[in-house]
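Trying the structure run again after the queue cleared.
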Amino acid sequence: MKKKVMILSASVGSGHVKAADALEKVFLERPEVGEVFCDDSLDHTNILHKQFYSTLYKRLSELTPEFLGWWYETSDDPWVTDRVRLMIDLPQALPLVSLIRDFEPDKIVCTHFMPAGVIAHLLKREQIKAELSIVVTDFHFHAMWIARAFHHYFVAQEEDRIHMEALGLPGDRISVSGIPIDPIFEEPVDRTEVFSRYDLDLETPLILVAGGALGLSPGAAVVKRLQALRRPFQAIILCGSNAEMKKRVEQQIEGDRERFRVLGYTEDMRDLMGVASLILTKPGGMTTAEALACGLPIVILDPIGGQEERNSDMLLEKGAAVKCAEVTVLTHKLDQLLGDPPRLSRMAESARSLGRPDAARSIVETVLTGQQAEAKRYSRADERNLRKAIEKNK
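Done. Tokens:
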């Protein structure tokens, strides 16, 4: 009998949803899969609950990113935060619970901790029989991803697995897969065609400036520093869904359009990343995973405290990125990079060594063919013992 697969994300930013979409594409290619249901779990809760997760996150990212950083560090307390979240999430997620029971999936894959926590609750009480896999979509395993019942975890890097084992999670249920990105990132890019499509010069370095799907990057300030560069360049400014930023940048480059292209939301990220010399971006999990898959050096801009800072630490440690703590030094740093092709080549090689363009296929293969045992369930006594072990090892 063909398998029924349910993939649940949450529209908190865009990365969780994009990871789910990537997995859906690969699951649909598999002959042993009969039906795939892929959706935003927040669409199956009440409107206030959805706004709490998605709208609040966006507003805090814009207005008080320092608070997000503080909350990320404060809430990174294993075996504590999930119980409080479940008290908030479960009453609001009853439509989601009904949906799961009606669909009767064989496999459930979650790319956000909110639906994972709800499903873990059902598994722990043996109210569903599906196998639960949890896909972590950043380069650091935060305590919010801990589920009290699960079958398998997929994480971005080996350090995550080591950290999780130290927290008491079983290593044989953790796969280091990378973050799932669109399978199109596995395919080669026709550099000449892409440069022709955007009327670009093949011999001039191309800089991408990515504002992210929410358009949060300080685009106008970045363009001002780009215009002051002494070395030859051309740039594509990606403004995401931020129409106001796009209009402002277009006004700013008036008279300098030969060097700049300004785009809103685009489906061409694979092509653009595949031909660019470097990317200026906030280090979100999905953007980082895509850039690494393309071997694209990263200039980190304005990371949000918490997961983006942790992603930054990883990129800097591995030599795949440089960081601009202040936009005022961007011109200086870019002039240095553009004037040092061997350094850019080393950064590109470091990025390529970290990239996992096949992550989605790796996850799907394990989910469908791995011999899963019974769900790992944690009792209250287990939790107390694990807390004591963690405290002892600090």
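The radius of gyration is 22 Å. Worth checking whether this holds up in the mutant runs.
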